[in-house]
Amino acid sequence: MNAHLINALALAAQGVPVLPLRAGKLPFGNCRRCADNACGGRPNMKTAGPCACPGVCHAWAAATTAPEVIQSGIWRRAWVQAGAVAYHPGGGWLTVVDLDNADAITWARENLPTTRAVPTTRGEHWIYLGAMPSANGVRPGVDIKSTMSYARWLGPGTGTMTQLPNVVRALIVKEPSTVRATAATVPAPAGGGECPHRRPAYLDRGIAMAEQRITDARDAIHSTVYRTFLAVLSAHGRCGCLTDTHITRLFTAAQAKGETARHCTDAWTNARTKLGM
What is the reported pTM? Predict the structure, then answer.
């Protein structure tokens, strides 16, 4: 049994959902049914789709604690090729504060409660007991990895794990004055097609994933917003199930990344035009 699989089974036994990573820190993409975004997710990428397939192709959503799945045929092949073990912190009721450099570590030591620390290639992972939304770039060199995200397993680390403090939760809170969503001026598609979404949770999960995709973007924000709007409209725009509330959520996420209301409106309009809506 290879070392990655041994570590994965040990983590799963502690209630921490795991998955294999290829070299380059990306999940495996080995599910033909999910090719070309057929399930609404992003195979081979860091975000996950609402898919129930058994393939190791949906990042944090594929993570599991079930040993029979971890050792199944599809997964067994992935572990042989894997470059690392990853885990879904939020699924194990954990939050990782990813400190990417020495300055970020210094800031953490001065501002955050001490907790279990794990050395990384360039910095440290500080692991707290408790889950919260994930977010990248909450301050220079600092990312939050918890729900709807994954982190590499780099060993048990040192120190006693501390309960997730409010000071960490506050890192993802945006000042209300910095975001003025104007999606209400953009009409939702009228629809008219047959709605394929049997459960409201499918749409809600899709919008949440789109928000996360925008929030996680570190560069090319304009194109990320446009591509995300395009993906949402492609999946949900023709049946008329999108509401102004859904659009406002997307616009709010985009403006929290620095996009202007005008650019959000243009990106939404261009995406609709691209799809012939």
Answer: 0.60
